[in-house]
Amino acid sequence: TRTQVAIIGAGPAGLTLSHLLAARGIDSVVVETRDRAAIESTIRAGVLEQGTVDLLTGTGVDTRVRTEGARHDGVEFRFGGRGHRIDFAGLVGRSVWLYPQHEVLKDLIATRLAAGADLRFGVSDVVPVGVETDSPAVHFTDAQGRRVELRCDVVAGCDGSAGVSRTALPEDRRVDHFRTYPFGWFGILAEAPPSSPELVYAHSDRGFALISTRTPDVQRMYFQCAPDEDPSAWSDARIWDELQARVAGDGFALKEGSIFQRGVIPMRSYVCDPMRFGRLMLAGDAAHTVPPTGAKGLNLAVADVIVLARVLEEFLASGEERRLDSYGPTALRRVWRAQHFSWWMTSMLHTPPEATPFDLQRQLGELDMVTSSRAGAAYLAEAYTGWPIDD
Ligand code: FAD
Ligand code: DHB
After folding, report:
1. pLDDT of res. 222
2. Could you tell me the CATH number of the domain that includes residue 314?
3. FRET partner for 231 with CA separation of 20 to 30 A, picked from 216, 259, 264, 305?
4. Are 169 and 192 part of one and the same domain?
5. What is the average pLDDT across 72-81?
6. How far is the CA of 38 from the centre of ligand 1 (A)?
7. H-type alpha helices, 50-133
8. Are 274 and 228 found together in one domain?
9. 350 is catalytic
């Protein structure tokens, strides 16, 4: 089998890339280890930047984001016992949308299949080969157990933080920028009405909490926990008590309900530099991971492939290898800004295990600056709603 671009991974990066390439008349095949049902039901991110929504709706993805998603024009920071709103719309004229990642994936898969795309779910033993030559390929075993050689012009490694693509990049040819945090996020889904019209990012001396939403009947909440916390060790009552304690003050209280999903998310920052090795181009979590506090992970994956689709079009039209050079440096500029924003939000809002009273007061000073200074609030609003795409 032969295609122009072999895409490893059917997450936001891989599926969006396949879609953007098709719009340019470029052929691709997507190979994915999980089955379609698993992809369409895995709970992950929830916040889409305005630019991500504009891209999906503007390129004909049959997305329900505008009807079923919720536009948020601001966000609330709670600290010192009360809420402080940041008005995105008023400060920067932009918004974000609450629309779950697996719904984005359902929309992308449906759009690609309706266009006749070749998406191979449930494959195994995926190996990119010959990426330093001009005839690379991806070898895999398909869902029927047949070994397949997928020849191509370029391999796009979109297989997330635990994929195989990055390992094709020899360790002495890349720099791994890596940082772990001494805490994780305990995430729940609960059947309950919303407690607040906008997202709440809460700082407290017990640690961070985030109150988000999915639908009028389902709420998403997170709280800082130990990185190795066992979610099954927590009763529902203990979870609610902990969440309530972290957002308390000012008469504010969460509306509680039945908890039907829970899990612990690790927190890390990672960047692989370069993002290209010969004919292998890394995009999304395969190339970088951010802690979730800034809600940047999915949006960064989409921003990468917007740049990548343009670079691949130039390369495939001209046959000039040097056209691939600009991808990494262009994408990395946004990646490092998002790394900084995600690290900054994380360090401003979380309580590290060894935090001193000085650390807590310094965080409160920072939060006061961000919520009371117009310049501070505008920086946060600009970064959270998303910088323009470097196209
Ligand atoms: P992924 O979505 O990881 O997609 C990669 C795909 O490649 C997957 O479908 C995977 O099955 C497939 N794959 C893996 N290995 C192979 C292989 N060898 N061969 C073929 N296919 C392979 N971000 C936020 O902003 N907020 C959040 O609340 C948030 N929560 C998260 C919770 C969890 C549990 C995780 C893991 C991530 C979360 N993220 C969150 C991050 C966000 O979901 C990611 O940044 C985003 O999914 C990146 O998209 P991607 O396409 O690059 O990678
Ligand atoms: C959600 C996740 C985030 O990481 C975030 O910063 C805001 C909201 C969510 O899952 O709703």
Report:
1. 98
2. 3.50.50.60
3. 216
4. no
5. 97
6. 12
7. 50-58, 65-68, 88-92, 101-114
8. no
9. no
Q: Which of 80, 112, 89, 143 is nearest to 10 (CA)?
A: 112
Instruction: Using the mean position of ligand 1's atoms as its centre, give its distance from the Cα of residue 12 in Å.
Output: 8
Please compute the mean of the pLDDT values over residues 138-156 and round it to a whole number. Answer: 98
Contacting residues for 367 by C-beta, under 8 A, at least 6 apart: 77, 79, 84, 203, 348, 349
Q: Does pLDDT of 79 surpass 90? A: yes
| Total Cβ atoms within 10 A of residue 380 | 22
- 358/334 same-domain check: no
Domain that holds residue 343: 5-64+99-180+268-350
| Residue 164 CB contacts under 8 Å (≥ 6 apart), including other chains | 8, 126, 127, 128, 157
From the CA of 384, which ligand is nearest?
Answer: 2
Give me 115's structure tokens: 């266009």
pLDDT tops 90 at residue 389:
no
Task: Report the candidate in 127, 119, 141 with the shortest Cα–Cα distance to residue 40.
Answer: 119
Is residue 384 part of the annotated active site? The answer reads yes
Show the tokens assigned to 88. Answer: 């995105």
Tokens of 21: 């390439």
Residue 132 and residue 223 share a domain: no
Pairwise CA distance, residues 75 & 384, whole Å: 10
Cβ atoms of 302 and 264 within 8 Å: the answer is no
Pairing status of strand 147-151 against strand 137-141: antiparallel
Q: Report the domain count for the chain.
A: 2
Residues 40 and 158 in one domain: yes
- Measured distance between the N- and C-terminal CA atoms of the chain, rounded to whole angstroms: 32
- Whether residue 278 is found in the same domain as residue 338: yes
CATH of the domain at 211: 3.30.9.10
Pair (124, 223) in one structural domain: no
Ligand 1 pocket list (CB less than 6 A): 8-14, 31-34, 39, 44-45, 101, 126, 158-160, 163-164, 265, 284-286, 292, 295-298, 301
Sign of CA dihedral 42, 45, 46, 52: negative
* pLDDT confidence band for 390 (50 / 70 / 90): low
User: Ligand 1, residues 101, 167, 186, 264: which to mutate, most atoms within 8 A of Cβ?
Assistant: 101
Q: Which atom of ligand 1 is nearest to the CA of 284?
A: 52
Q: Which residue in the list 12, 100, 136, 292 is annotated as catalytic?
A: 292
Structure tokens at 73: 């024009």
What's the pTM value of the predicted model, to 2 decimals? 0.97
> Which ligand is in closest contact with the Cα of 122?
1
